[in-house]
Specification:
2 helices; mainly alpha; 57 residues
């Protein structure tokens, strides 16, 4: 995996995280909010993992 590919994937994940954060802000249902929070946490874990991988290259 090249650095450019990693950077592109990180940017996609960050954009998706922003979308989910916006969705979280307008959601009313408690369960929906919890699901969105979990999705945001998973995205952040993926971002963190890619950043660690990038540093090792």
């Amino acid at each position: 995996m090249e650095l450019q590919d990693i950077d592109m994937e990180i940017e996609k994940l960050k954009f998706r995280k922003i979308e989910l954060t916006n969705k979280l802000n307008i959601a009313y249902d408690f369960e929906e909010k919890e699901d969105i929070r979990l999705d945001i946490q998973r995205l952040q874990q993926q971002i963190d993992t890619l950043l660690k991988f990038k540093k090792k290259l």
